[in-house]
Every structure is written in C-alpha cells, then in structure tokens.
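Researcher: Good morning. I'm working through a list of sequences from a screen, and I'd like to move beyond sequence-only analysis. For each chain I'm collecting a predicted structure so we can compare shapes side by side. This is the next one on the list. No need for commentary yet; just the structure.
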Amino acid sequence: MTLIHFLKEKLINECEGDTNAFAKLVARDKHLVLTKLEGDASTRSYFRFNDSSNSIIIMKLNLSSKLAEEGFTTQSNSSTQKKLPFIDVYDYLSQFPISIPQILEYSPGAGILLLEDVGDELLQYYIHNKDAKEIEHVYKKALDSLLIFQNTTGKNKKDCVAFTRSFDVELFNWEFNHFIEYALRQASEYASHEKIEMPQEDLKKLREIFDHISKTLASDEHVFVHRDYHSRNILVHNEKLYIIDFQDALMGPVHYDLASLLRDAYIHLDENTTAHLLNYFIEKKGIANRQEFLKHFDFMVVQRNLKAIGRFYFIDRVKKNPKFLQYIPNLVENITVILKRYKELHFIDTLFTRYYEDYLK
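Model: Good morning. Structure tokens for this chain:
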C-alpha cells in the first residue's frame, strides 16, 4: 500500500483527521514515522509522514476556529461551491511556471490536505555560509518567480480569489493602526515596565503621515501579490525554489512582495547585494521612473516592516508566542535608514528613538 493510500484509509477515513489518534496508530509500526513540524503563527498544523523510502506532508486545518479563520470563500461562478483560498490560489498558480508543492489529496470533512514533501530547507537557512555571489544568484531566482507572479495579473481573474480583494488606503491604515495599538505602546512597556501614552497631538501627526504613505502606495500599479513573500516562505529543493503559504494572495502594489523579500524580518541582506537585486528587478520589470520607484519601494518597506513589528508584538501578547520578538531589531534596522532619508518621515524617526532606543543601540 502506498503512503497516500495508507493516509486516505487510516488518517482520513478511520481516524477522521484526528492526528493524535493517527499518531497512536502509526506508533505500532516501526517502519512508519510521524513528525510534527514547527509552524509559524497560523492555526494550521503540519506533519511529515514517512516510511523508509517516501514522505508526505500533512496539513491539518483548525476547523473549530470558524470558517473565516481558514478563509473559506465562495467563488463567483458558483453560489454553492466553497473553496479554501489555499486551494483556490494553488489552482490558479499551477497554470504558470512557478514551483509550488503539489496537493496530493484534500478531505474537507477531515480538514486534511496531503502535500508533496519538498524538504525543510527554507531560504532563510539555505543562504547561511553562502558567499555574496551565491546569495545574489538564488535571490535572482526568487525575483524571477516574483516577476512571474506579477505577470500573471489579469489572466483568468474570475478563477482566483486573489483578484477579488486588494490593498487599499483603508487596509494599509488598518495595518498601521495595528502597529500603533500593539507595537508603540507595548514597546514602551518592554523598555520602561510601565505604559506610556503617546500625546494626542503626536498621535494625530503620526496618523497623518501614515495616511500619506497609504495613499501613495494605494495609487501605485497593482499586481498579483503573495503578501508574505520572504525567506521563510521559500523552500530550496533540488536547486529549485518552491513557494509556500500563498493563501492570502491579493492585489497590491508592485513593490509589496519586493519589499517583503529584500527587506526581510528574518534575513538582513547587505546593502550592495540589495542594490544589485533592486537593479535586477527594475531592469527586468522595465521600470521607467527609477527615482519614483525607489522612493515608493522605501515607503513600502516602512509600511511592511511597521506592520510586522505590530504583528510580532500581537503574537507575543495575545497569542502568547514570543518567538518572533527576536526579529524586531532587524525590522527596526530595515526602517531607520529610510526614515532619515525622507524629510516627510523624520517625525516617525523621532518616535523610533523614543520607543525603540534599546533596539537602536
């Protein structure tokens, strides 16, 4: 019996998707191994199931967290058919020359997806001990995939949920508010052990700057956006880059995924490498106004990194998971140089000095 048939019979049918019951069943056979994999902040769980020669990844959905938590959507071409955004976007991207792990089986009732196993080597870890030339080479591969993402925009729109949702001023400002609520105030508590309220006039000025950034970014060309295109969502396997965690795809600024990749929370690329990669993208994309593009890229880095700082504090305080706090210094470093570069952003820089002094030392 093949692994996939075993999983369909035992995990999906017999255990009805209960991974705990399945683990007990597997423990009886020394030739089978079930390993829980480290996850990030989502409600999904991942396992690797293997015998002596083959392996499959099990994605377990959290069906008890409401349909909205896993993002079920109804396609416009069918008022009754419901589809996971993960499967919806997978079906769309499968039309194009982008490497993504293959879906082998899906059981909605059991909340189980069986996926092709393409290993554990995240781009984040792959580039350790690599020289600048090799890092630039593999990142150019990632940029090539990004350009394919962006060039799919407008093709078969009706068939993908990503084209029904979009970054706009409201969404950008909501993410900025997430930063204000969870990052500015929480950072002050971490630093001083007491809650420091920002003066209302400062908060008003900050929101005006954020609104200016949001309007600038929302007015840019919108393309297909992965939304989390960074080193922890790219796997390196047999010299190919596999893109994962694409279920939140939507329409957004042309700079969004570029900023996520080159100004990553988890990897700090040196300035020369970043400049070379930006030039590579600009030339491949055929950007006419380079100066404007680079300014809007910087604005996107500020927005994206501030959002991530707020998210990491939220995950710590609300979800009781502090493991992402270690990456905040890298996010702060990504932003501070840009804040000093543009006069219209200097006020944010003063707030960073006040609230993130420990990180800036």
